[in-house]
Amino acid sequence: MPRTAVPASHLPHSGIREIVDLALGSSSPMIRLEIGEPDFPTPAHIIDAAFEAARKKTSYVQTAGIPVLREAISERLAGDYGLRAPIERVLISHGAVQAVDAVMAAVVAAGDEVLIPDPAWPNYEMQATLLGAVPVRYGLRPEDAFQPDLAEIRALVTPRTRVIVINSPSNPTGAVMPAETVAAIVDFAVSRDILVISDEVYDEMVFDGGHTTAAALAPQHVVSVFSFSKTYAMTGWRVGYALVPSWLADTVVRILELQSSCVSSVTQAAALAAITGPQEIVGEMRDAYRRRRDLAVGILAGAGTEIVRPHGAFYLMLPLPGDIDARSAALELVAHGVSFAPGTAFGRQTPHHLRVSLAAADETIREGLGRFLTWRDARLTLPTGSGVSVRGA
Ligand SMILES: Cc1ncc(COP(=O)(O)O)c(C=O)c1O
């Protein structure tokens, strides 16, 4: 039998998928708080634009994306972030997933090292592994409000380090990096001639303060990756984009060509309608996620659970009492009618946390956290008089 390539055979299984499969297969009604996707429908004008494009002739289009969409993105980056980038540096991808993948494939070779946050969205480690590279994790610890420690990053860099991945707002923690932290990491990367891949797919979901685009700080050392998935509730449409250094653009385009030829012309028409159409919906969704964050923080604080308050994205890390292992807890909770993603799915720093997705209706959040608290109280004797306690507020 032909054998699997060694790096591919080392790909880890997704610890989130295990819970998703159980939740989907459950015969009793399940409160789903494990999945990270907007619960809003894609706005109607975006869907209409796709229908219109599909009725006209569809075709292969430019690998880097249709120029009119790249132009609109370039204008958006200038308007929102004062970032002036020619469209040659704006590449459309099949979701942010493909942008991260193609950029890594362009710069990382077998044996290279890639610095990745811990906890983090699992794809970074998987992509580095598939390329035969060595994923090296830097900690985002609850006691530091899930912020990176620059000294640790410095200490982990070796002559083999090719990429430092950063992600703000963060999946899974909801932490938002202060502008000074982003600048310090980018400055350090520039000083060592390392590429930063800055995953900014939740850039429109910052609740308190603003978002810092890393690409604005060092255009030749940073790739900033964005997505329509979260901003416009378009996960199923599969369209994202990257702002890449000019020296890297052509190589990434050649990889995109190999991977998918181009992003669907229908999807790109929808993305164009999204980015050039009414933007109030973006703010409305952000307000809803903020309200849900406040609701969840309030419920947990009221129950004496100490959490790090998230400032963006739509996630919250829920600490488990005692030493309960996150995977066992997530499995037990599924049996209890509520599903969360275990912290173990995102790295090694959060073995006793569950990720709560706040991309759910208020009532679902209330009911899901209620079930969690009932389970917790039944499983453990709680310390008394813990009161309200929210760190990083
Ligand atoms: C941090 C992060 N980056 C990238 C993605 C992928 O986004 P897309 O749907 O654009 O591929 C996700 C999806 O959950 C994510 O959480």
- Which small compounds were modeled alongside the protein? pyridoxal-5'-phosphate
The spatial strand order of the largest sheet comes to 2-8-7-6-5-3-4
If classified by CATH, what would the architecture of the largest domain be?
3-Layer(aba) Sandwich
Percent of residues in helices? 40-55%
Outline the biggest β-sheet: 7 strands, mixed
CATH topological fold name of the largest domain: Aspartate Aminotransferase, domain 2
Q: Over the alpha carbons, how many angstroms does the gyration radius reach?
A: 21 Å
Q: Given this structure, which CATH class of the largest domain is correct?
A: Alpha Beta
Total helix count? 14
How many strands appear in the DSSP assignment?
14
Protein structure class? alpha/beta
| Poorly predicted ranges | 382-393
Which H/E pattern describes the elements?
A: HHEHHEHEHEHEHEEHEHHHEEHEEEHE
